[in-house]
Amino acid sequence: MARIIEHPWDTLKQLSIPIWFLDIEKENIYVSERLQDQWKLDSTILDRHDLMRLIHKDDLAYLDHHAMTREDRHFFYLNYRVLNNGKYEWRKDIVTPFFDENGKIMGYTGMGAPDSAYIEELGRIKKAIVEIGDAFLSYNGQEFFDFLVKYLSSVLGVETVLVGELTGEAKDQVTAISLSHKGEISSGLHYALKDTPCEQVTLTHECYYPNDVGGLFPEDITINDYGVESYHGKALLNSDGEVIGILAIMDNRTQTSGPLSKALFQIFADRTANELSRMQAEKKLEMLSQYDPLTGLVTRSYLSGILEDEIQSMNEKDSNIALLLIDIDNFKMINDSWGHTKGDELLRQFSRYLRQTFAQHDAVISRISSDEFIVLLKHVRSIEELREVSDYVIHSMRRPFLIGEKEFYNTVSIGVTFTPARLRDHYNGETLLRHADAAMHKAKRSGKNRYAVYEEKMSEQMREELHLKQSLHHALDNNQFELHYQPQVCGRTSQVIGYESLIRWNHPDYGRLSPHYFISLAEESGMIIEIGEWVLKEACQQTKRWQVEDRRPDLKISVNLSAQQFKDLNLPRKVLEALKSSGLSPDSLILEITETMVLQDFDRSTDTLNSLREKGIKVHLDDFGVGFSSLSYLNRLPVDAIKIDRSFINQIGERGEEVPIVNAIISMAKSLGLQVIAEGVETSEHIAYLKQKGCYEYQGYYFSKPVPASLVHN
């Protein structure tokens, strides 16, 4: 303890060393002549205003006697900056308290610390740098941040250290990655930035409040709850110079370790910013692996994990889970026709549609491939509930998607699988996904625009389908395809006026297959273009042979175009090449298309049809009535005839009762000046009814099934 004297400065001023004395009662600082010379002062007595001109504003608080008051009565080091020749220089002093006879502090004396003190502090900084480097190599992620806050709290002797990440959509809050408070490590604390020192850090990149920080930020609940007196915060920046987080130390005492904390802060801030940037990059990669960047939906890999967790968490009392695998019909054709930009926009709109549709369900929605989506439904009560949901999706798709200024209609095929809780041990996530896929392909094979519920036999069908896909690639080269022909008959003359060509596949394992079994596979694989070109050439050549051999130059041939063929920009050229190579006249060829094909892009469709008809080729609209029939587009569509779908002809009964849809189609065709042909004519009653209504061209089993060319008799 220092010796008590009447007034310490009477003795101290006689020393020939740079020294000062803080008089608590008078609130003045006395400086020795030696120190007066060093600081270039006009007087040896400094008041508060003099100090404000001399000492850095952030360090003035250190020279306040309240800040110097400590529980112990020993000397301590004080760091502060003094203005010298227009620049601030750091000074480190040894400060010693002086007491009166009653043990009350009279003031403090300070004098420059010896070199050993600086060497000691430099040693601490060097030791800290080494330990920081070791920690950075030894730890990463959360371990590094936990080490950091604990280490800083210890080496700087402060109560609280925070490493926080800017969060929230507006980056208006800090979330604690790691927080050390009174030796306890925690994380996850959300800290609103508004009216806090952390907010100032994000604006200025560094803030230093050596005391009374609670008074400066009275709205900061955390600062006041923790009883924080001093605050030092530094912004954590990424490589682009953007603030991504904050490193802050807080204490319940005035801070005096200026140089050490600032040196360590700079080193730690850089290292911490690097680690935080790396962690955020990993999070982004993880997000990319979990969420589809185009639609924002869950990815297949992430869904698989969710699905496994759901299966494992099921018990006998839980409701069941189900999967809906929803595939956009003909999406490849859409992409090829509209371009990927519009295709992507369709996927985004369809994703929003799914979110809205299942918003009231406990569901997870995932995009698992280009045009396939999975809806995981939890707490499903029954299979009937799934049927209702699937029906709703199918029917709600009748509304168009608006992309740009155009309306686009689409259909979907849905595969449904239902998993009762009692059978959870029999399934895993991949099994359920395969089952949903099998059911979806069943819906595709059944004509699309529908749903199918998984049955055990579908798995075998999937294996057969895979075999068909593989062998399809060799079918053309191995001459396994052949055409069958079904006659089209004039009701007035009972004469065959032409044929529709229908492809068959003579498969080496499964025998003769109708298009029902392989056309959708050919579309999926992209082989439908090659197969369609073969059909076109073969049909033209055969028809030309009949015209010559049977002297029937009036015979016509109808060829069905696939959706992908119709969207092929080279279609007109390929059709003309087939006609030229066979010698068949353009007016002998009829191309059959469907409503769905036309509606994918109505303007482009009309351009294609007009270019074909200009060459003399006829165009018939097949399966009329089963799609999105509309008089508005039919009136503008350049076709020569419409074919009434067989499903309507089958409604004609023996009693001759009226079939309004057949009547309406015939009447409409006549009003539009279009030829009308009835498909699926099988009985004399069909013919009698159609003749009565004014339809005189027929095709169906009543006359002949499709047969090979060798069995055709003109």
Automatic annotation (TrEMBL):
Note the InterPro entries from the entry. Answer: Biofilm_reg_signaling, EAL_dom, EAL_sf, GAF-like_dom_sf, GGDEF_dom, Nucleotide_cyclase, PAS-like_dom_sf, Rev_trsase/Diguanyl_cyclase
Q: Which CDD domains match?
A: EAL, GGDEF
**Residue limits of the GGDEF domain?**
319-456
Pfam families the UniProt entry points to: EAL, GGDEF
The EAL domain covers 465-714
Extract the SMART domains matched here: EAL, GGDEF
Gene3D superfamilies linked: 3.30.450.40, 3.30.70.270, EAL domain, PAS domain
Q: What is this protein called?
A: EAL domain-containing protein
